Task: structure prediction
Amino acid sequence: MSDKELLWRASMVPRVKKYPFKRVPKIAFMFLTKGPLPLAPIWERFFKGHQGFYSIYIHSLPSFEADFPASSVFYKRQIPSQVTEWGKMSMCDAERRLLANALLDISNEWFVLLSESCIPLYNFNVIYKYISQSKHSFVGAFDDPGPYGRGRYDENMLPEVNISQWRKGSQWFEMSRKLALFIVEDTKFYPKFAEFCRPACYVDEHYFPTMLTIQASNLLANRSITWVDWSRGGAHPATFGKSDITEEFMKRMLAGPNCTYNDRNTSMCYIFARKFAPSALEPLFLLAPKYLGF
Result:
C-alpha cells in the first residue's frame, strides 16, 4: 500500500464496541532504526515466553535487509519503509507508518516507539502492567518559553495552532490506540508542520506533542518513559559503551527521579532507556538478570 492508502486503512475504527472474539490487548513495540538491531539478544530474552501479549514492527532504511533467523521474534517484522532524516518531516512519516501498520492489528492497544539503542529496564510482566494499567499515555508535551520552544513557533501555523498551544517533547513515546488514531487520521495539522516547522524547528519534537495537547491533553502523562542522559551536553544525549556499563551505572539508571503515575507519586518513572552502543551488549546481557529482572 502507499502511505495514503495505509493511513486511510488504519484510520478505520469498529462501530460495534464489543469484540465478537476473545481479544487479548497487546503492546506494539515499534523500532525506528537505520538498520541492524545490535541489542536484539537483550530484547529476545525480554520477550521470551510472552507470545500473544506483544507485536513487533521495524522501520529501517529501505536498503537494509535483515537476516534474523526464523526462530527470532524479529523475523519478518520489517514494514515497507522510506528514507528518514533526523529533524525532518520524514521522521514523523516513519512514525506514522509504524503506527498505521500496528493499528491494522485490532489487538494492539498500546504503542511504544523505540530505537535500536534502547533497552527495557524491567521484565515483560512489569512493563506490561505499567503500560496497561496507566490512565494516561506517556507523551512529553511541555510549554518551553525559550528559544528552543516557543522560539521555534511560526505565526503561519495559525489558525490551527496558536503560540499558547505550541508544545515540545521527546520523540520516544508510548500511546493508546485512541491517540494513535488521532495521528494516522490527521490532515489538519500535518500540512502546517510540514511547511512551517523546518530546521531549526525540529518537527519530531513538536508535531505530536502539540497536536495531541490540542486534541486530548487530558490523556497525556506529559512525560516520557524512556531514560536518557543529557549531562554531557550537546544536541544529542550521551551514548554508553562497554566501559560505561557497571553495577554503579545500572543502580544510577534505575534510581530515577520522582514523578506521578495515575496521579500518585512514584520513583518508577522510566521503563526503557537509551542510548546504548553495540559494545554495551555484553555487559548489559550479563547484568540484566540481577538488575533488570530478566
About this structure: Strands lie at 26-32, 54-59, 108-115, 119-120, 174-176, 226-227, 259-261, 264-266, 272-273. The radius of gyration is 19 Å.
